[in-house]
Amino acid sequence: MTRKRRANKSPLWARLALLSGALLLVVSGGALVGGKVLLDHYSSQITHEGGLGGAAAEGATIDGPINILLVGVDERTGNEAMGVRADSIIIAHVPASHDAVYLVSVPRDTRVQIPPHPSTKYDGGTDKINAAFWFGYQNGGGRDGGLELLAETVSKLAGGLRFNGGAIVNFEGFKGLVDALGGVHMCVDEKVTSVHTGWNTKTGAEGVPYYFNADGLPTGLKPNMRAQVYNVGCYDMAAWEALDYVRQRDKLANNDGDYGRQRHQQQFIKAMLTKATSAGVVVNPLKVNAILNSVGKAVSFYNNNVSLADWIFTLKGIKPDQMVTLRVNNGKFNSQTINGQWFEFLDETAQGLLAAISQDKVADYVAGHPEMINNDAAQPATSPTTTG
């Protein structure tokens, strides 16, 4: 049976990253929001100005192709001196036909050239892409500055890609959003062992099951601890289970690390949209209100001067089955160590995909590279997840 779990206040849970309550809002919003008055009320809680800098698309319009930068961050509450890094970076691309959404995860360890950011006294340099948010966050830049520099870095990596919107996800609020949905139905495509959630076999108390070394990698199990395990199969997951599952990257059965985590995060976004647009949600006014109240706590959506009503009207026709999740580097590590530091590099096919996004030719590109598509996990329904 699924075990009840007390709230975990650890700021490390914010590493959930990726999670796109903003995408949930704009794609399913047509079903969830009933009128302009309600839209205006929630718009003030959700939308923010700025945040995209030189990577912002010109003009307050989303009539053509649409690109949204989705960012999950590791926010160390009470330790601002450590700054904030982007733990998940996802490009959501909607073609000009507005009949699909393509999700592309950029590996957070990708070696890139980060442009200068004078407002936070950063001179530019070569680093991992997740550091861009950190450099933009420093010296008063905050979340706006972090998103701006990251957007400009991704734009440079993708040959001048421009963004119509961006979003930063906050874990604690996001957990409330998934709770408001009543959990999600997830299909586990490889056995995943949680290094963050476990149970004491003698007392039944929850705790972190593994010891970690100085690099943050798990070593051995702690005495009397049993880790939470997600076995292959399809389950109705509570918020804590789904968020714990998509957080994992160290003990995945296929040893695919960050690539496995990226795939699971993309699947989770699709599962959320499926649940949000289901009949049991959209016809329940109490659920709708709870969801809308949670979105503003979960997501900071930078709308690039396009009204929330226009976002929802433009994208409301896109259904979860029109969402295509894509992998770069064929889901495999493409790493090099330079001056003692480990980096990921995008292969030729991945670079071609980014160029196709900039040119709004993703459908044609993917048709020529079908191996890039992350197939949805779809096993027969089984019993709920158990601790292993």
Automatic annotation (TrEMBL):
Cell envelope-related transcriptional attenuator domain segment(s): 85-277
Name of the molecule in the record: Cell envelope-related transcriptional attenuator domain-containing protein
InterPro entries: LytR/CpsA/Psr_CW_biosynth, LytR_CpsA_psr
Coiled coil location: none
UniProt family annotation: Belongs to the LytR/CpsA/Psr (LCP) family.
